[in-house]
Write a structure and sequence with these properties.
With 100 residues, the protein is α+β, with helices and mostly antiparallel strands. The chain has one domain (4-99): ADP-ribosylation fold, CATH 3.20.170.20. 24% of the residues lie in helices and 38% in strands. The strands form three sheets. A three-stranded antiparallel sheet has the order 1-4-8. The protein has a three-stranded antiparallel sheet with strand order 3-6-5. Strands 2-7 form a two-stranded antiparallel ribbon.
Length: 100
């Protein structure tokens, strides 16, 4: 397991997280977890799901600081393991938000 994982979100969702005190992706309500990726998976995620989108933020997350469970699970569409956070992401675990 990597000590750092990454999550792509919009600047609007990140600003909302800063106001609420935690980050919560829509997938938490619909799928039960927040999709994340390893550093080597970020480019593929951007190409598959965010092509042409602007005003994005890449969250660098320290997995040792997460307060909710982290599990690596196979994404059936590409047969690759991705990190999933089963709960909100506490802001102190986000060590570097970068606008992309």
């Amino acid at each position: 397991m990597a000590d750092k994982i990454y999550h792509i979100t919009s600047m609007e969702e990140w600003k909302l997280a800063l106001m609420k005190g935690y980050y919560e992706a829509p997938s938490l309500a619909t799928e039960g977890f927040i999709h994340c990726s390893t550093e080597s998976q970020v480019e593929g995620v951007l190409n598959r799901y965010y092509s042409g989108k602007t005003n994005l933020v890449k969250l660098e997350i320290d997995t040792t600081l997460l307060t909710h469970p982290l599990k690596y699970e196979i994404a059936p569409s590409i047969q690759e393991e991705f990190p999933h956070v089963f709960g909100v992401i506490n802001l102190d675990a986000v060590i570097k938000p970068t606008q992309i």
